[in-house]
Design a protein that fits this description.
Elements lengths: L1 H27 L22 H4 L9 H19 L6 E2 L6 E2 L7 H6 L7 H25 L3 H10 L4 H5 L3
Antiparallel strand pairs: 1-2
Length: 168
């Protein structure tokens, strides 16, 4: 009986991981970074305008928060944690402000494990596993559907627009 539940759990987990591997595979193995760094080449942003950078066209300027706000905050939190301090004060913003970015989310705390931005894809995989497992249990317990429909919902939920567009 326990072997059947283990196999069913592994099927649900494997489907969620497979979906994330299709979406973020190169980022999970470190070939790509899950940040829109082309935004740094926008005029007046960070990289000086040269003939080489003039050819770079930013794909989605809406994602600037990922590069200009969230990644510097993550790097600051990593530096503070590696120095043995829990980041509570951000001295480099304005005249100093309270720093609450990594305090309440286990997903953000996972991102503070390393300075490498490869961890962003792994944090997304972890969020997909939590969300997919939650959808599976919701479908099974609250909706009362069978294993196969609940599994398909668990596989598809991390691939919805919310997870893909808000991966940052």
């Amino acid at each position: 009986m326990k072997d059947g539940k283990l196999i069913k759990s592994l099927i649900v987990i494997a489907g969620i991981v497979l979906g994330q591997a299709v979406l973020y595979g190169p980022s999970l193995i470190g070939q790509k970074i899950l940040l829109p760094l082309d935004l740094l080449a926008s005029p007046g942003a960070y990289i000086p305008l040269t003939p080489e950078t003039a050819r770079i066209v930013p794909h989605d300027p809406v994602l600037t928060d990922l590069v200009f706000q969230l990644e510097p905050a993550r790097r600051f939190a990593v530096a503070e944690l590696h120095q043995g301090r829990f980041p509570t004060w951000a001295p480099y913003e304005y005249g100093g402000v309270p720093f609450i970015w990594p305090v309440y989310s286990p997903f953000l705390l996972l991102e503070c494990c390393t300075r490498s931005p490869v961890i962003l894809a792994w944090a997304q995989l972890f969020a997909a596993l939590v969300g997919g497992a939650g959808m599976f249990f919701f479908c099974r317990k609250s909706l009362g559907v069978g294993f196969c429909p609940a599994t398909i919902c668990a596989w598809c939920y991390p691939l919805t627009t919310f997870f893909v567009l808000w991966q940052g």
